[in-house]
Amino acid sequence: MQELLDNLSYHFRSAILAGDYAAAESVATKYVEAIRQNWEALTEVERSVSPLPMQSREVLEWARASIIAQRALSSEQVAVLLKSSRYLQPGSPSIELQA
Question: In whole angstroms, how far apart are CA 18 and each of 11, 21, 26, 44, 58?
């Protein structure tokens, strides 16, 4: 089961890094379900020493921080484009921004 969680975590991180949030959402759903199944299969004693909560928290915190950073970077890039578009001369090639 740990191999499945590691594989899903890898694909989840890859989708986020690629900016493919639809794929990330799909993999996240599978990841959460795999965590639930794994957790339910553990005994109380196994749960008390399981690294599963910490591992899953690390993955989700990484995802949150990465998405925040990507959004900030995208916002800065849009600001640069908007600022540079103010300096375009009439008749020069222009940049069209779409929301």
Answer: 10, 8, 14, 38, 19
Rg (CA), the chain: 21
What would the DSSP string read from start to end of the chain?
A: -HHHHHHHHHHHHHHHHHT-HHHHHHHHHHHHHHHHHHHHHS-HHHHHH-SHHHHHHHHHHHHHHHHHHHHHHHHHHHHHHHHHHTTPPTTS-------
Model pTM? 0.74
Q: How far apart are CA 25 and CA 15, in angstroms?
A: 9
Chain segment 28-42, per-residue pLDDT in tens: 999 999 999 999 999
Structure-block tokens of residue 9: 């975590």
CA–CA dist 55, 62 (Å, integer): 11
Please give the pLDDT value at position 49. 96
